[in-house]
Structure formats: structure tokens, C-alpha cells
Design a protein that fits this description.
This protein is α+β, with helices and mostly antiparallel strands. Among the domains are: 61 residues, no CATH class; 172 residues, P-loop containing nucleotide triphosphate hydrolases (Rossmann fold); 119 residues, Beta Barrel (Elongation Factor Tu (Ef-tu), domain 3), CATH 2.40.30; 100 residues, Rossmann fold (3-Layer(aba) Sandwich), CATH 3.40.50; 97 residues, Beta Barrel (Elongation Factor Tu (Ef-tu), domain 3), CATH 2.40.30. It is 38% helix and 26% strand. The strands form 10 sheets. It has a 6-stranded mixed sheet, with helices on both faces. It has a 6-stranded antiparallel barrel with strand order 18-19-25-22-21-26. A 6-stranded antiparallel β-barrel has the order 31-32-37-34-33-38. The longest helix has 65 residues. The protein is elongated and about 195 Å long. It starts with a helix and ends in a 5-residue tail after the last strand. Guanosine-5'-triphosphate binds next to helix 16.
Length: 898
């Protein structure tokens, strides 16, 4: 660009007639111009016009210069003339011949100037293009370097990530140190990425550092196709087309900078008409696009699977059966991928479906993982920790006592009497709560744990589950009543479980009390008391008068000593559930008797097919405690379901283990239930067949507490006969839910709700599905109703009812109907359709049905004694005069269960 200012500043001002004034004409005439470029540089150029000289031999024979006439102003410049553009320093000579220029016409001068300017601009354009090309190359190189650095950083990050994941897998064995390492790796990778990013940003900023002039945009007002370089300007001036494609490419960042430098930041990113119509924008690749292409290329190089190098191969613990989802989880694969693999194997399975280990094995291999087969039993292996504790770790523990005896012999009274002797009870305060068991602190310093469960039913129930909680049985026998039915039952149960018995002869305060009689009776049941040379201790007590309690305590402690009751308190707790219930405010609550180790708040445990974390523990006085040692019963909060009385309670190392065991047990329970329904083993099927036509009444029992539930179940099972049976499909503690209704609906069962109600959803469902829910609060009512239902299922009793006799007086042979007997009713009545027996000489010769009963050719309902009638038998014609007809009907009488 040339300006008068530049001209003015040049060292040798040309022939300016008037300095400081703008006179384009004159500057051109000087032949020297100063030019400044967009990148900030400027230079002076001198324009010289050289004329060629020609020589000819003159008349004198000497060579002489031929002087040609000055060109006409109207003529175009001669081709002989050459325009040379020189750099300023070289052009020190004044422009000559000055006179020649002076001779040019104005038009000629303008034309020449135009040509000169065009030539100069063409030169400038070329130089600028070369310069831009150089910059572009530089930029390209920088970008390549950045891409390379980025790629290196990314690979490093990938590697670090892979290492991290491997370390993660190894963490199962040795977690901490490996994890730190992986984190370090990740940090290094992150640092590398940050550096790469910084580098890239620096590189991107680099073009910004170029001279501001170079970035100077073209005038804003110009259209999109405005010339962007001097070369373009010339070309455009000469009527040529600006070919954008040939322009040196520049990065989007440059483009942005360019835009920004125009001060049009607000329009950044907006679509304008010019930008939309501009070819330039259409041809430029965005940075994101470049990145995408690069990533795509990389992916292709790696075989098109981006995740492949990141995949962590795992060892899958494979049980005998596994759900598709669980299999996916264990491999850290998506369930859909597992399903796809299964489909390839020809197995159509849904996400919740269980597949066998063999199929799962193939899927695992297919997905590149390894497996470790475990049997069902392996799941529970090691759950109990160290099975046998070292002798040195063992310490004496207090005995656990169960009180049994006949109804009203004073079990509750005796327990109350003992409890009232508790020294801690009075001091500590708190309201005594029923938690099914409690520990009594006696004056002597001894502690005895009593199981406060009613009767021997709970004892038996626990024993059935394999739980041996009780160390000693105290058999309460009323001195005035002696051995009764339930006393004998209790003796048998205690004997069967091998638990020693101490006999407490109660009600000694009563006038008719006779302890010797009791001792004698005990002999009949193979219980030889110490007085008679045996090993069974007897203690005479009175719960009412609170006498003999010390002796009972002594007897218990002596027995405990003999049993050498010891436990290791310094280990993870193992215990048994004594009672469980669903508390409205606290959720599932279980009374647990710790048998080994110490249960601490926060421990994770498995109990039956439930698991949880000990949220809080309370004793029978409702006081919060944080630890519970051996032989201490505690109420535990934090279960995720309600376990059964007698279920084990084991502390495990983590949630995963607890969940795994609970799930395994739940599955086992389901399998057992399925087997019990006859879909199980062949033996069970055969047994069912052998049972013959045994009708079953399917029921579901839901109760408020475990005790009531057990009581109802036991009562109902007692009603079973050879003909009818109660099939208890499910029992549970808590409200009736939708799952109960579903089960009832599918099996045709009815639901016994004892002191519980159905939740709204279950209620709605039961109405919809027509499932019968019976609400009870008295066990006898349950028993009565079930008895009635069972009775209704009994085959009715069939009884024969005699109607009358008839005597055959005449036999008619009628062609169409066969033989008809003309009879006289001698006794009672004869009814149409009734059963008949044909007697000849008092011998039954036929038993069948009466086909027709007529009087005077008309069919009648019945004929009474003393009247004549016609009879014919169904499919029987061997009748004679004198035969007797005995007429009777079969009555059905409903039966009742006893
Ligand atoms: N005289 C006298 N009566 C007693 C004694 N112990 C209990 N009783 C009474 O015997 C009755 C039954 O006592 P419980 O303690 O309820 O007997 P139980 O064996 O727990 O009865 P169930 O819970 O129904 O099995 C009550 O009326 C008591 O007052 C005692 O030592 N002397």
C-alpha cells in the first residue's frame, strides 16, 4: 500500500512542489515509491525507464546514434521499453531522462503509472504469497508436533489406565500398595496430558504472536470474496477471478483470530449470510473434525475396537448356576453382550434367567475371561471362620437355660421369680422388654441366660433347624400335679437333644405338694434323681413364695461347671436367632444369642437367607449396647429381612460375601420348596403317588411374630389325616405383600393373616385376583376355619336308606321294552330311579337300578305300600314270579374332622 505519508517520510522526498500536501501525480512522476505491507514492513522502490539506443553507420562511415523521435502521447508504450523495478538502495541515480517524462501526455503518464503499479503489486503479491506459504508450513509443522505430543500423552495415559485397571484387579489380593502405584501412574499420565495440552495451546497461540499487521483483516465492508492479498487485488483489478483454493491455508484458530481482530467477537460462532455463502468456510476443517478424524484413524489401526486395549480380563467365580445379569457383573461385561453370546450358542435367555455353569463357562471363554468353578458348598466354605478355637483363647461363659414343663405348672412364674432376683435389673432401670431371652446377674456374681420362649415348641423348632442353643433344660413339675402329658414330651425332647435336665419341683408351698411322688414318677421316664442314686438334680422351689431359687441357681451352675462351657470372645461373632419380628418403626428386628466371639455394632452378618449390618443393639431392658459377648442375648437392628427362629447368625468380612451367602441360601430354599411341591426328586414324586388321593389344602401364613406363626403352622399340621392335608406353602412375619398374593393365586391357596394386614397393593391385587385373605387374632379361630375347610374336602359318607319291598306277581313280555314285572308293594314305598336288589329265596341275585315305575301304563314317581305297579330293571331281565324287590337309595352325609 502506498500513501503520501510514506512518501513524505522517505529520505529523499521527490519533486514535491508542495510538501505535506497529497499529490499523487507528482509522486508517481518521481519514479520512487515507498510501499508498506500488511505484515508491518515497508520498502522503497525506484522506477526507471530505460530507452534502448540504436547506432547506424553514418555518411562519414562512422557509427552514430540514431535518435528516434519521442513517442507520441497517444501511443501505447513501445515494447522496447522495459520496466524494471529495483530496490531502493540500488536506485540512487536520479530518474532520467527527466525531459522524456516531461514530454509525456497526462494520459500516457497515467497509463504508465497504472502499469507500474500493477507490476509492483504483482511482485508484492508474489512475495507475500511466498511468505504466507512459509508461515503455513511452519504452522503445519508445529501442529504436527502438537499432534505427536498429544498422541504420545494419550498413549501414556492409556497405558497408565491399563496399569491402573490391572492393579485394581490385583487389589483383591494386595490392595493398597498397588492402588497407590496406579494412582501415581494416573497422575503422571494426567501431568503428561496437561503438558501436552499446554503445548498445544502455546502452539495455537503462536500465530497470534505474528505481527499485528499481518493479521490485519481486509476491510469489513468488503464482501466475502474480497481480495485478501495484493496478488488477488491485482488479479481482481485486471478482471480476473480470485481463486480461494489456491490461497495458503490457515488454521481455524487463525480464522478466529482474524475474526476477533476485526472486533466482531460477538458474532463468533454465529451463522451469517456471508459465512454461509463463503466457499472459504466450507473448505476449512474444524479442529474438532481434525481430532475426530485422527481418532478414527487410530481406531482403525487398532482393529476398530476402541475398548479392546482397555479390556480387563477377570477370573470369574462360577457357581453351579448363575443368572445372566450376575454373570455379566462378574465379568464386568454388559448383560446384553452376555445375551448375545448366549444367542450365538443357541441359548435364548433373559437377563434374569438362570443358566448352568457349563453354558456360562462357554460365554466366559468367548468373552476372553477365565473362570473358577465352585460348588454350592464352596460358597459357605470358611463362613464360620476358625471352627475350633485354641484352648488358650477359651474363657468360661454363662450357661443358657430353657425352662420347660406342663401347662400351668409355673414356668412363667419361675422365670419371673428368677428375674426379680436380678441385681442389675433394679439398678440399671429401663423397661423390661420381651426379646425372647435375657441374662440374669445373680447376687453370687454368676450370670445365667434364660430363653424366654413358650414351651418346648420353640425348643423343638430350633432343634429341627440344627440349632443347639440350650445348655441345660429346667423341667418344671408342679408338686401337686406331678408328671403330665407335656412334661413327658419335654423329657423326650430334652433327651433327644442330649441336653441335661434339672427338675424344679414347683409349688412346694401348696398344701398337697409331694416331691417324692414326682421323683417316683420321673423314674418311669428313665430320669433317675440324685436321691435315688441317679445323676438328675432335683430342686424343690416355690415360684410364688420365692423359695429354693438359690438352690436352683446352684444346681444350674454346678451343671454348667460339669459341662465346661467355654467360648472364645476374641473373634467374629457366631450366634443363633432366638426370635425375629418386623417392627413398624425399626424394620426387621432379631433377638440373637451370641455363642462365640463378640458382636460389635457395624459388623456385617448373614442370618439364614438374610443379611445386614448391625445398626444398633439393645438388651432386654431396651438399653443400647455396642458389644455383645458369648451367651448374651441382644436385639439386633439392621437386617434386610426377617430371619427365622433358629437361623444361624454369622459375622462375615464384607457385604459382598454376606450377599453371596444370603443369595445362595435363598436359592437353596427355593429349590427345596420346588422339590417339596413334587417337582423335585423321583423319590418325592413316588411318595406322593403312594399317598394316594391325599387332598391338600394350600395355605399361606403371615403373622405378627415368629412365635404365633410357628404355633399356627404346628396346629394346622396336626390336623393332617390320610385323606386331607394342610399344605403350608409359605410362612412369614409381617404384612401381606404382593408376592404372597401371587403365590396364593398361582396355587389356589388362601392366606391366613394373624394380627397382620395386607398392604394396599396386596389388598387391591387380592380383590382383583380373587384371592381369599382371612384375618384372625385368635389361633383357635384359625384352627376352626381350617378344620372346616378340611372337612369340606373330605369325601362325604355314603349311607344306604331302605325304602321298601315289592313282590313280583306277574311277568309281562313287551316287545319294545323287554320284560316288565307286575308287582305289589308289600312294605314301604318304591321310588322311580331308586336302587334295587333282586332277591330270590332271600339271596341277592341282582343289584341295580330301577328303570321304569308305572301304574296303569303311566310313569309315576313313587308307589306306596299296598298298591300294584309295573317295574323294569336297567339291563336286567332274569326275573321270575315270586322274586322280591328290595328298594333303597344312597344318601351322602358330610363328614367332619375330629
Ligand atoms: N401356689 C403356687 N402357685 C404357683 C406357683 N407357681 C405358679 N403358680 C400359679 O400357677 C399358675 C400358672 O402359673 P404360670 O407361671 O402361668 O404357669 P405356666 O407353666 O407358665 O403356664 P403356661 O404359660 O400356660 O404354660 C398361676 O396361677 C400361678 O400363680 C407356686 O410356686 N406356688
Amino acid at each position: 500500500m502506498t500513501s503520501s505519508k510514506d512518501t513524505k517520510q522517505s529520505k529523499k522526498p521527490l519533486t514535491l512542489s508542495r510538501p505535506n500536501s497529497l499529490e499523487l501525480k507528482k509522486t508517481v512522476e518521481t519514479g520512487q515509491v515507498k510501499q508498506s505491507f500488511s505484515h508491518g514492513r515497508s520498502k522503497s522502490v525506484t522506477v526507471e525507464v530505460k530507452r534502448s539506443r540504436t547506432f547506424e553507420r553514418g555518411e562519414s562511415g562512422r557509427m552514430a546514434e540514431v535518435t528516434t523521435p519521442e513517442p507520441q502521447l497517444t501511443e501505447a508504450p513501445k515494447p522496447k521499453e522495459a520496466v524494471v523495478v529495483k530496490k531502493a538502495p540500488a536506485a540512487k541515480k536520479p530518474i532520467k531522462p527527466k525531459a522524456t517524462q516531461d514530454n509525456l501526455t497526462n494520459a500516457e503518464k497515467a497509463k504508465r503509472m497504472q502499469v507500474l503499479t500493477a507490476a509492483r503489486q504483482a511482485e508484492e503479491g508474489k512475495r507475500q504469497a511466498a511468505e504466507e506459504e512459509k508461515l503455513r508450513l511452519e504452522e503445519e509443522n508445529k501442529r504436527k508436533a502438537v499432534i505427536q505430543a498429544e498422541e504420545n500423552a494419550r498413549l501414556k495415559a492409556d497405558e497408565a489406565e491399563r496399569l491402573k485397571q490391572e492393579t485394581e484387579a490385583a487389589r483383591v489380593e494386595n490392595a493398597k500398595s498397588s492402588m497407590e502405584k496406579a494412582e501415581d501412574e494416573a497422575k503422571v499420565a494426567a501431568r503428561a496430558t496437561t503438558e501436552a495440552r499446554k503445548k498445544r495451546e502455546a502452539a495455537e497461540r503462536a500465530p497470534d504472536r505474528r505481527p499485528a499487521r499481518q493479521e490485519k483483516p481486509k476491510p469489513k465492508k468488503k464482501p466475502a470474496a474480497a481480495p485478501t492479498s495484493v496478488g488477488d487485488a491485482i488479479a481482481q483489478e485486471l478482471g480476473g477471478r480470485v481463486k480461494q483454493g489456491n490461497k495458503p491455508s490457515f488454521t481455524p484458530k487463525q480464522a478466529t483470530d482474524k475474526k476477533e481482530s476485526t472486533g466482531d467477537r460477538r458474532n463468533k460462532g454465529k451463522l451469517t449470510i456471508s459465512s454461509a455463502t463463503s466457499d472459504n468456510d466450507g473448505r476449512q476443517r474444524s479442529l474438532a473434525s481434525v481430532k475426530r478424524r485422527r481418532q478414527k484413524k487410530l481406531q482403525q489401526e487398532r482393529g476398530g475396537n476402541r475398548a479392546a486395549p482397555m479390556k480387563v480380563l477377570r477370573e470369574v467365580i462360577l457357581p453351579e448356576t448363575i443368572t445372566v445379569q450376575e454373570l455379566g457383573n462378574r465379568m464386568a461385561e454388559r448383560a446384553t453382550d452376555v445375551i448375545k453370546e448366549l444367542m450365538k450358542l443357541g441359548v435364548m435367555a433373559t437377563i434374569n434367567q438362570t443358566i448352568d455353569a457349563d453354558t456360562a463357562e462357554l460365554v466366559i471363554q468367548e468373552l476372553g475371561h477365565t473362570y473358577k468353578r465352585v460348588t454350592d458348598a464352596d460358597v459357605e466354605q470358611g463362613i464360620l471362620g476358625v471352627e475350633v478355637d485354641d484352648e488358650g483363647d477359651l474363657a468360661t461363659r454363662s450357661p443358657v437355660v430353657t425352662i420347660m414343663g406342663h401347662v400351668d405348672h409355673g414356668k412363667t412364674s419361675l422365670l419371673d421369680a428368677i428375674r426379680s432376683a436380678d441385681v442389675v435389673r433394679g439398678e440399671a432401670g429401663g423397661i423390661t422388654q420381651h426379646i425372647g431371652a435375657y441374662q440374669v446377674n445373680l447376687k453370687s456374681g454368676n450370670k445365667i441366660t434364660f430363653l424366654d420362649t413358650p414351651g418346648h415348641a420353640a425348643f423343638t423348632e430350633m432343634r429341627l433347624r440344627g440349632a443347639t442353643v440350650t445348655d441345660i433344660v429346667v423341667l418344671v413339675v408342679a408338686a401337686d400335679d406331678g408328671i403330665m402329658e407335656q412334661t413327658i414330651e419335654a423329657i423326650n425332647h430334652a433327651k433327644a437333644s442330649g441336653v441335661p435336665i434339672i427338675v424344679a419341683i414347683n409349688k412346694m408351698d401348696k398344701p398337697g405338694a409331694n416331691s417324692d411322688r414326682v421323683k417316683q414318677e420321673l423314674l418311669q421316664h428313665e430320669l433317675v434323681v440324685e436321691d435315688m442314686g441317679g445323676d438328675v438334680q432335683t430342686v424343690e422351689v416355690s415360684a410364688k413364695a420365692q423359695t429354693g431359687l438359690d438352690k436352683l441357681e446352684e444346681a444350674i451352675m454346678l451343671q454348667a461347671e460339669l459341662l465346661e462351657l467355654k467360648a472364645n470372645s476374641d473373634r467374629d461373632a457366631i450366634g443363633t436367632v432366638i426370635e425375629s419380628k418386623l417392627d413398624k418403626g425399626r424394620g426387621s428386628v432379631a433377638t440373637v444369642l451370641v455363642q462365640k466371639g463378640t458382636l460389635v455394632v457395624g459388623d456385617i452378618f448373614v442370618t439364614g437367607s438374610e443379611w445386614g449390618r448391625v445398626r444398633a443393639m439393645t438388651n432386654e431392658r431396651g438399653q443400647q449396647i455396642t458389644e455383645a459377648g458369648p451367651a448374651l442375648p441382644v436385639e439386633v437392628l439392621g437386617l434386610n429381612g426377617t430371619p427365622n427362629a433358629g437361623d444361624d447368625f454369622i459375622v462375615v468380612e464384607n457385604d459382598a460375601k454376606a450377599r453371596e451367602i444370603a443369595e445362595y441360601r435363598e436359592q437353596k430354599k427355593k429349590d427345596l420348596a420346588a422339590a417339596a411341591e413334587g417337582r423335585g426328586s423321583l423319590e418325592q414324586m413316588l411318595a406322593k403317588l403312594k399317598e394316594g388321593q391325599a387332598e391338600e389344602l394350600p395355605v399361606i401364613i403371615k403373622a405378627d411374630v415368629h412365635g404365633s406363626m410357628e404355633a399356627i403352622a404346628t396346629s394346622l399340621q396336626k390336623m393332617n389325616t390320610d385323606e386331607v392335608k394342610v399344605n403350608i406353602l409359605h410362612t412369614g412375619v409381617g404384612a401381606i405383600n404382593e408376592s404372597d398374593i401371587t403365590l396364593a393365586q398361582s396355587t389356589g391357596a388362601f392366606v391366613i393373616a394373624f394380627n397382620v394386614r395386607a398392604n394396599p397393593q396386596a389388598r387391591e391385587m387380592s380383590r382383583r385376583e380373587n384371592v381369599d385373605i382371612r384375618y384372625y387374632s385368635i389361633i383357635y379361630n384359625v384352627v376352626d376355619d381350617v378344620k372346616a375347610a378340611l372337612s369340606g374336602m373330605l369325601e362325604p359318607e355314603q349311607r344306604e336308606k331302605f325304602l321298601g319291598y315289592a313282590e313280583m306277581r306277574e311277568i309281562f313280555n313287551i316287545t319294545k321294552t323287554g320284560k316288565i314285572a307286575g308287582c305289589m308293594i308289600t312294605e314301604g314305598i318304591v321310588q322311580r330311579g331308586s336302587k334295587v336288589r333282586l332277591l330270590r329265596d332271600n339271596v341277592v341275585i341282582h343289584d341295580g337300578t330301577l328303570k321304569t315305575l308305572r301304574r296303569f301304563k303311566e310313569e309315576v314317581k313313587e308307589v306306596k305300600e299296598g298298591y300294584e305297579c309295573g317295574m323294569a330293571f336297567e339291563n336286567y331281565f332274569d326275573i321270575q314270579v315270586g322274586d322280591q324287590v328290595e328298594c333303597y337309595i344312597i344318601e351322602e352325609i358330610a363328614r367332619k374332622l375330629d
